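If you are new to this repository, start here. Below is one unmodified record pulled from the training split, so you can see the exact layout before writing a loader.
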Amino acid sequence: MEDPIHAAEAELRALAREMRELAAGRVDADGRSDRFADSARQMKPGSAEAGTTLEPVGPMHAALAVEKVALLASEIERILCIYNSFDILATVSFTNMYFNPEKDKEFTQVGLQTYAEYVALLCLKRPFILSQRRWVDPEDSDRIQELVAKIFRLGHLSAVIEMASSSPSRRPGAYSMLQLSARNREVTVRGMAYPSHLHEVIRGLFTDFDRVLLDRAGFTSDDALRLAGGIVDLMRRKLHARRDDARNHQAQLMRLVKAFRRGECTSDMTDSDARLMRELALCPDRKIRKRTKMLSIGYLFSEFGDTWSFTAPELAGLTGLPTERTDAFLRGFRVEFGSIPADFVMPEPIHPLRSRPLMFHEDRYMSVAPRLLDWALRPALEETLKAAPDNTWHRYEQHRHRYLLRKSVGLMKRSMPDAAFGLNLQYPTSATGTEAAEIDAVGIYDTALFLVEAKGGVFSDRGRSGHGRRLATDIKRLVGDAHEQARRALSYVESSDRPVFLADRGTNPARVEVEKSAMRDVFLVSLTLEPLPELGELVGGGREAGLFQHGGIPWVVCLFDLMVMADMVEHPSQLPHYIRQRIRTVRENRVTAADELDFFGMYLQEGLYFEPTAKRELHILLNRTTQFDDYYHYLDGYRRTPTPKPRQPMPEWFEALLTSLERSKLPGRLDAAMRLLDLGGENRHQVAEMFKDMVEMPLVAGKLACRLLRLEGDEISAIALARGNRADMIQRRLTEICDILMRREHLRRVLAVGGVLKDKYEAQALLCLTQELP
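And here is the target side for that same chain:
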């Protein structure tokens, strides 16, 4: 992976040379070079071409990047002033937001939602422009797209250099990299949850408070979701209606041309229409179809702002909600033209459209990014409850925490049906037992212990932007404190001979007792409602900021990601296995991604394994969520082509062995199942062939069918499988095999599974032995 510091330095040195040339008048900049003169003349003139030392890249270069952004933004604003504000914004929005779920993928989409947001913010600096030019020249929209891409690149370079300049060694630490990652994520990434999941959570959080919301805000949470969804639906309907009109317009043009060829010229045809008909009539039919299609596209995008915008009565009519509730909702999320400061030029992580996504002029509303409204709902509704009397906010905070905990534990239980979880537990912290600490949840699934803490708080705007120590403060509040509470519970488990967690009276189960000798894995789980930075960056940066100091790596998971995982896992062992693999990637610090679901997507596709290499390189996971996008787009009705649920591929007989283990209820089955899941593709196929051969082998009464497979390249050294009529015979034989393999052949880890065969194979004996070899 290219060093981001070196890449940024090279680009900014090139920018500095451009600025000096502009200041010296050697490059034509449409008379605007003077605005760079003062800054550029302060730069050292050395260059590699001249044989002198390259100037250090520092704050001055970052300042030049800002100056360049201002110049590019002024060109965008010049184009914006030519057109009707809604028309140009609708065109920019369509360019960046139009997505065909049947064909398009996240990695093939041309634009970015944040590009449309940025152009809208520039447009909102001025009063609404009522231009008579109602069709946007494609060259102008393409130019805007090109300029915005450059601006976002310069903004990123400026942030990188500012971060590097703050470090004496010019090698920023983990916390600085976390700050940069948090900032870049907020600048460029949107939609960190699927709409159906986000809507489910909003209903779960606010339905119980709808009466307060109606009284204070004028609408309920259900109203808000219906209206937000209604805006997306209304815009889609109007676009499709305009598209159908354009197609009818093309068909009408074709009929007129054919009539003109026959000499059937209507008397009401204007001179310009007659000239067009004469020109088209001389063309071959193929060219006529092409020309009329281009004309219909022009018709589609003419006065496009009227298509992309809507009125309150239109929205109320579509949703069936009272006009007063619709008006209250729209007032609460609208922003006026002329309300953005005149000096705004640099893309910012947090901006007014994040909380008020609806632009308003006279009686019409428009959103360049309609899904922004979904993410603006929770902060707005929470602000309403904060201002409500009668201890409403405190009751909501308690409800929010309870909802997050119960929903998340329910998802984990759905993924691991045999797991037992206790909620809101206490345990002694003193030898006498007079003092007690609390933990949100403790779960036991065979050989795995889950110590769970949930934090339903909000990531502050300054924290999301990566500002100073506020990011560390937010991480401590949302993740660090939860980790410390889970670590404290783990210390109790480790120090107690018989750890017991007790619940309040009337709670089921009333107690959770941990059998320490059976536990092979302990997972410290931190649950959040907030999408957070990537786990490896979070832990690394947090440790540098003084968090996670007492050992152990937490699995930090947002509720929205857990909802996807619970939908996808097909075997109870997969979720704990993924958690174990995920924590390993953090410990090895060789992989990063923009999204936790990129890691989970790779887990389903390839098992989340990375071959060891002599050269330490950082791998970046990209485009691993496309399989989830297609699946949920189909479920939510945006995609017509059926899409199968993503799953981890495995040979049929390998999966049969795994299923038999999981259903056996044998102690140690989870550890054995995760050992199987550790196997790579080739070894999985070998195990499948061996298991199939053993199951299909004729069984002689009183005899055992046994198979042994030695493995290469995986943690399991050998797998032994046995089948017979009596469980005691199977157990003895497996013990003998393991003894031979480990004592005589010195194999490191052996997995032995035995069972009986009735109508299907049923595992009834299990050994998973490990020995440490010198």
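Two things worth knowing about this chain: Residues 383 and 543 are 32 Å apart (CA to CA). DSSP finds 29 helices and 17 strands in the chain.
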